[in-house]
Amino acid sequence: MHVTFRQLKVFEAVARHSSFTRAADELHLTQPAVSMQIKQLEAATGLPLFEQVGKRIFLTDAGRTMQHYSRAIAQQLEEAEQALEELKGVQGGHLRISVASTVNYYATRLLAGFCREHPGVRVSLDVTNRETLLRQLKSNETDIALMGQPPEGLDVVAEPFKDNPLVVIAPPGHRLVRRRKTVPLSELERETFIIREEGSGTRLAMERFFADYGITPSSRIELNSNEAIKQSVEAGLGLGFVSVHTLELELELGRLKILGAEGFPVIRRWYVVHRCGKRLSAAARAYKAFVLEKGGMQ
Ligand code: PGA
Q: What is the position in ligand 1's atom list of the atom closest to the CA of 203?
């Protein structure tokens, strides 16, 4: 049977999503490319692996058997990769890190320190939001994630390394900035807030905060990056709710101000996270130790 690993990878994604379209999205392929890989796999096995009932697709018996073996093969390959990484040791390994977009500002500086100490390590860094990070951890696409507290019940090891204070920002000329006294939440409620997209940890924290105090800001504009939020606040579109770690430059240049508002700062924490059963390579172990040792101090 002539089967390629790529075909198995595509097959696994289609089987997991029960959808060619969603598998294509995940693998950054076109739908015809996915169909072609599945056709070739079916030709190689000599049996249909999927059947279409109405609009949905299902695994056939042969498909289920194939799924069992393709998972085992993927697992074995991954173990081989980890064992080889281990042999390369801390000076030669490949390290896959994913960081929440809010942590990025801080994480790149941390990474520069790590790379100075371990110049031989090849690093891939992915910057994304909380929801995507959780998916990457589940599907083992990353070795280590730096992010806000992961949800209960996920099989991960999560160790805190730094406080992440969340604040409300305004342009320097805003009427609430000139206030001497703490701004009450009833005043904030009347303001337009520029907020992060669904799936962002910052957004989740903001919603919890507003729900705890029973307030609903009158209007909201949604943007999917910290940079875009800061620029919009600077331009006078509304107030922002962001991590203080994203603000260093703007505060220094006086382009944005932090509001002294009731209940703020909201203190969250950042965690260094990996899957429980993950066999961390020497490079990943060294990186985790580096974050825990140096992370809180920078
Ligand atoms: P995010 O990151 O808002 O970019 O998702 C913050 C977090 O996970 O705490």
A: 3
Contact by Cβ (8 Å): 140, 9:
no
What distance in angstroms lies between residue 84's CA and the mean position of ligand 1's atoms?
32
CB atoms < 10 A from the CB of 193, how many? 22
Residue 178, judged by CB atoms within 10 A of its CB (0-12, 13-18, 19+), counts as exposed
Ligand 1 atom showing the smallest separation from residue 270 Cα: 9
* Tokens encoding 159: 């160790």
Cβ atoms 111, 123 nearer than 8 A: yes
Strand partners, 196: 223
What pTM was estimated for this model as a whole? 0.78
Task: Summarize pLDDT for 111-149 with one digit per residue, the tens.
Answer: 999 999 999 899 999 999 999 999 999 888 899 999 999
Residue type, 143: D
Distance CA 252, CA 256 (A): 9
Write the CB contacts of 112 (distance below 8 Å, at least 6 apart in sequence): none
CB 126 within 8 A of CB 97: yes
Q: Is 102 in the pocket of ligand 1 (CB under 6 A)?
A: yes
DSSP annotation of 298 reads: -
